[in-house]
Amino acid sequence: MNSDENVEAINFALSLIDNGYTNPNPATQTRYDLQDMFAAGKLAMVIAPNQLPTYVADKGGDINMVTVNIPANDGKASSSVGVMDRVMAFKDDTAGDQGARNEAIGKFLKFFYDPENYVGWVSMEGFLPAVNSAVEALVAADPSFEAWLDVLAGCQFYPTAKAEWDQVKQGVIAAEQNALTGADIQDELDALQADLVG
Amino acid sequence: MNTVKGKRKWEPYIWLLPSVLLISVFVVFPIIIVFRLSFSEISKAGVVGGFNGFQNYIDAVNLPAFKTVMQNTLWWVLSVVGLSTLLGFIIALVFNQKFAGRKIARSILIFPWATSLVIQASVWNYIIKFEYGNLNNVLLNLGIIKEAINWRSSYQIEFVWECACGIFVTVPFVTFCVLSGLQSIDEALYESATVDGAGFWRKLFSITLPLVKPSLSVSTVLNIIYVFNSFPIVYTMTKGAPANKTDTMITYLYMLSFYDRKKGPAIALSVIGFVILCVCAGVYMLAVMRKEEEQ
Question: Which residues contact A85 (CB under 8 A, 6 or more apart)?
Fold first, then answer.
């Protein structure tokens, strides 16, 4: 957690606040506040999820906008953060008929990911698809959707399956917020690293 | 006759039984469970393990934000209860006088009390927003300022805004508690004091305050409990950010339990808060009751 790259990245983000390039109260503003301002034409640039065009349209916003990749340092590839929900099935060795159990799980997953059902659900939620079979139908319904598929390919997803993820996430948030109030980010990340290693 | 007397002896307890049962099931029993859990090992998923002594309390007290949160809670309760009691008392004195529009003024004062705390805090958030808040808009349009001011430029100022919102929503309760006490004071006392040459301040300290003390005591004790346990204002305005610097104990233990998933220390904190409240409320009531007995 306390690598030089992480320290540099967080210090860069903090410098954006100090130099007035971004909102001055990031600790108490959510992306919905910023999206509202963007939809009203009050913000030039915003980092937002793929639902933003729909969100702006729903707010009655009529702004001319384009989507670009998040900038990266020279020689580094751009990356986006991916957030996903998970469908989980749990192994139960004590269950009576394992065969019937596995069949039921498979049947449900087939039903859920059948494009006839899945496409409607993905569209309603404003998500990106997790299976290729849904892509064709989604692109046909909304051609602008195709641009997001390239972003999806380079996404870094939150490692929510790892037990220590909660501690890492809250620890980084606390470290960044402490740095906002004057703490040294290297010290904060060193403390977080020590806490994680235990 | 003995049977009738015997039945009469038990009658009050029978009437009290439903309330006692309700309080036992919905208050006492959960408190006992919480106390038991505070001495148990609890996993991130909420699975309760075995007895682990005082480890949850040790972990809670050793949390980096514990001292900040306790200080914030103390300032939060002192400022909100103290200032709302003072302001509420003054407003009650004004509302006790006859003036045109008194009924309308009293009705308007109820709004902050009747409106949900989340809505109140959201409105205050909106008013003090830097980018498009009402406060900046009004001041800019009146020409009082030339540029928008960041009204939340530091966490200390954000905490002050939280306290201001807390005072705003608490003043109506104090006002109406004190007003009910003021209206029960016999006018003849003020008339004879006037005849004896007493001025405003003499009447205030010798007649009004002593007779309004029971109402003030009730409102103060209740306010200490409500304000200490108040969650919506802090959570809506800042969620304790940045880095728990604007957290009070209640919002902190919520974040600890549901965001950090440290359920053991969170439960220990809730027990610590419960004990603090019981001690504060108990000490205050004893002091007031002792003074009343002396009088």
Answer: none
